[in-house]
Design a protein that fits this description.
Helix 6 runs antiparallel to helix 7. The chain has a single domain, classed as Rossmann fold (3-Layer(aba) Sandwich), CATH 3.40.50.720. The protein is globular. Helices cover 56% and strands 11% of the residues. By secondary structure, the chain is of the alpha/beta class. A seven-stranded parallel β-sheet has the order 3-2-1-4-5-6-7, sandwiched between helices. It contains eleven helices and seven strands. Bound molecules: nicotinamide-adenine-dinucleotide. Nicotinamide-adenine-dinucleotide binds next to helix 1 and helix 6. Keywords: Lipid metabolism, Oxidoreductase. Pfam families: adh_short.
């Protein structure tokens, strides 16, 4: 029988890619309920998977900021049966906190953190009753480690990770699986929106040094970080599908091996200074070394892509 998968935030990016990938599964193992806040934005998903609509794919409205919309969506699924939940909807926010309003920050927490909480309040009781289910959460490497000028976004993903770490212990008792997918930079609308908002940001609330740091250091390097380290949404979808199909899915999964050395720094130093010093040096002291390491990463990326392609040919 097909497993019902409910995915949030499917009008673009990673959510769209996961919905399309699972709907296209050759073995037809999934019935995908691809949801989005605004159904008027379904064209890109249709472009990617229109031939599957009514078969392995249904498109539904769901706003993670509205309990009513979540309840209506789940009630519209036969027997409310959701075997796999992919909590993906989310938003970014960059810049100095002096230039952000509390309302903007609350909006990020409401979407990224309370969005997940609302979904689980609706779906978890059913899963517990059945003693089966898999909850997959698109978190971020920023759920492990903060980055300059991503203060509130990182806080929202830390909230997600802490919440899931606590819940995972209870879930085990009910034989439920919980998996946090932690991508590094992914080239999606997200990155474009966040960058454009950053460029438009009114920096008059910040002192000159902070404003310059944001424009001349952070925004200046932003594009090159995504270009050298960035993954595609399809790549993240491929990882997510493997986690969903795994008999014994891990609690945490990073999708970007080029990024793992950074997160490893956190685990290497219980005092917590090592990753902070390293980021500081990368950003403020060694602009040249920073560029050199980006070039090195590009080389690694090219090499690993080559061996990945080779591996594919042999299988
Ligand atoms: P995206 O902007 O393309 O996708 C986010 C989706 O969430 C959009 O379709 C948006 O409409 C939707 N959304 C926002 N608020 C919503 C709401 N209230 N209800 C329902 N849907 C809502 O960006 P993406 O990169 O595909 O992001 C997907 C997830 O991946 C997010 O949780 C993000 O934090 C995470 N992530 C992204 C990156 C990256 O670099 N792009 C890296 C790590 C993690």
């Amino acid at each position: 029988a097909m497993k019902n998968v409910l995915i949030t935030g499917c009008s673009s990016g990673i959510g769209l890619a996961i919905a399309a990938r699972l709907a296209k599964d050759d073995q037809k193992r999934f019935k995908v309920y691809a949801t989005m806040r605004n159904l008027a934005k379904q064209d890109d998903l249709l472009k990617a998977a229109e031939e599957h609509v009514g078969k392995t794919l249904e498109i539904k409205q769901l706003d993670v900021c509205s309990e009513e919309s979540i309840r209506n969506c789940v009630n519209s699924i036969p027997d409310r049966r959701v075997e796999i939940l992919v909590s993906n909807a989310g938003m970014g926010l960059i810049g100095p906190i002096e230039c952000q309003t509390i309302e903007e920050m609350q909006n990020v927490m409401d979407t990224n953190f309370f969005g997940l909480v609302r979904l689980l309040k609706e779906i978890l009781p059913d899963m517990k009753k059945k003693k089966s289910g898999h909850i997959v959460i698109i978190s971020s490497v920023m759920g492990i480690q903060g980055i300059l000028f991503n203060d509130v976004y990182a806080a929202s993903k830390f909230a997600v990770e802490g919440f899931c770490e606590s819940l995972a212990i209870q879930a085990l008792k009910f034989k439920l699986h919980l998996s946090l997918i932690e991508p590094g930079p992914v080239i999606t609308e997200f990155e474009r929106k966040v960058y454009e908002d950053g460029m438009k940001m009114d920096l008059s609330g910040a002192d000159k040094e902070t404003a310059e740091m944001f424009t001349n250091v952070y925004l200046k390097n932003y594009k090159s970080i995504f270009q050298s380290l960035g993954q595609t949404a399809e790549d993240v979808a491929e990882h997510t599908m493997k986690i969903i199909l795994s008999d014994n899915p891990p609690f945490r999964h990073q999708t970007n091996t080029l990024y793992t050395p950074m997160t490893t720094l956190k685990y290497a130093d219980p005092n917590g200074d090592l990753p902070i010093d390293t980021f500081y040096k990368m950003v403020f002291q060694h602009d040249k070394i920073f560029n050199a390491s980006l070039n090195f990463i590009k080389l690694l990326r090219w090499r690993s892509k080559k061996s990945f392609d080779l591996g594919k040919n042999h299988s």
